[in-house]
Amino acid sequence: MLFFLSTSLRAENFAIGFAHVDLNNPYYLAMEKMAYTQAAARGVEITVLNAANNQVSQNKQIDALLDKGIKGLIVNSVNEYGSMAAIKKAKSRGIPVVAIDRPLYGDYLAYVGIDQWRAGELQGEFIVKHLLPKGGNIVMLLGIPGEPATIGRENGMLNIVQHPKFAGKFNILGSYRADYSMELGYQKMKEAITAFGSKIDLVYGLNDAMALGALKALREAGLLKVMIVGIDGQKDAYDEIAKGGQYKATVINNPAEITSRAVNLLVDHIKSGKPPASNSVITGTVLVTQENVGQYQKSDALF
């Protein structure tokens, strides 16, 4: 039996679907909210299904959306390979697919999101130039293994700090899977503190939710000099960066912008029948530090 979380907005025009990876953090929740908002603004019905990070469930949910009679599909895939068969099925039925947040393998209309690899590189460059110019010990909090954001954000950063010109300067003390969850970020940081304590110079969280969880654990342990960086541009991270404390930087990954652009691209294509101007829509991948955080802080932001 198939169980999923489903909500719909009804309209007279046509229906689209959104196969969402999860709703376990504020970023994904902001995407869901904007999907409803933008679909309503365009006068279409949308159904959002939560895969809860399970690829088998997501593929079944895509089948359910196709059977529902949708005219287009947005996919935030659990992993880049796992949804290939489902996307192929959509293509065979003439249903255009837009990949959102995570690039996919398969025949889809377009990808909308940031450059995940570049996001990691930006943090790596900031670390070696400004935070640890003499080198240091780093703890990494990782997302879900094998999915594109994890691969890009992890390896983009490692591509910088493990470059031969920095040989021997940077030591990765440990890498902990925390699934982009603040609570898991907190728990895994406590494990890292038990293992490494004051040896830790910096924590790199592959998203702000995990990094904010790590910040809580570090404060509880009295490790107030350990620096933290993340990715996503969560408003709580902006607030910490603005204080000039331990939280040093994030990279913008605006869920509202990404989702609204994906909905508009898909609806425009369905209505016009014309392909988009580009099949890769890369939104701003921008490093945010104390120097420029004031440009991005918005008290009413969804995320």
Distance between the termini: 34 Å
**What's the number of domains?**
2
CATH C-level category of the largest domain: Alpha Beta
Which band does the percent of strand residues land in?
Answer: 15-25%
The gyration radius over C-alpha positions equals: 20 Å
CATH fold name of the largest domain, please?
Rossmann fold
The geometry reads as elongated
**Which blocks of ≥5 consecutive residues have pLDDT under 50?**
1-11
**Spatial strand sequence of the major β-sheet:** 1-3-2-4-5-6-12
The biggest sheet, with number of strands, parallel, antiparallel or mixed sense and barrel status, is: 7 strands, mixed
Secondary-structure element order, as H and E? EEHEHEHEEHEHEHEHEHEHEE
Structural class comes to: alpha/beta
Mean pLDDT: 92
CATH superfamily of the largest domain: Response regulator
Number of helical segments? 9
Helix content: 40-55%
The strand count comes to 13
By CATH, the architecture of the largest domain is named 3-Layer(aba) Sandwich
Compact description:
The protein has nine helices and 13 strands.
Give me the secondary-structure topology.
Layout (H helix, E strand, L loop, with lengths): L4 E5 L5 E6 L5 H17 L2 E6 L4 H14 L3 E4 L8 H9 L4 E4 L9 E4 L2 H16 L4 E7 L5 H14 L8 E8 L4 H15 L5 E4 L2 H13 L6 E3 L5 H9 L3 E5 L3 H18 L7 E3 L4 E2 L15
Parallel strand pairs: 2-3, 2-4, 4-5, 5-6, 6-12, 7-8, 7-9, 9-10, 10-11
Antiparallel strand pairs: 1-3, 11-13
Helix pairs in contact: 1-9, 2-3, 4-5, 6-7
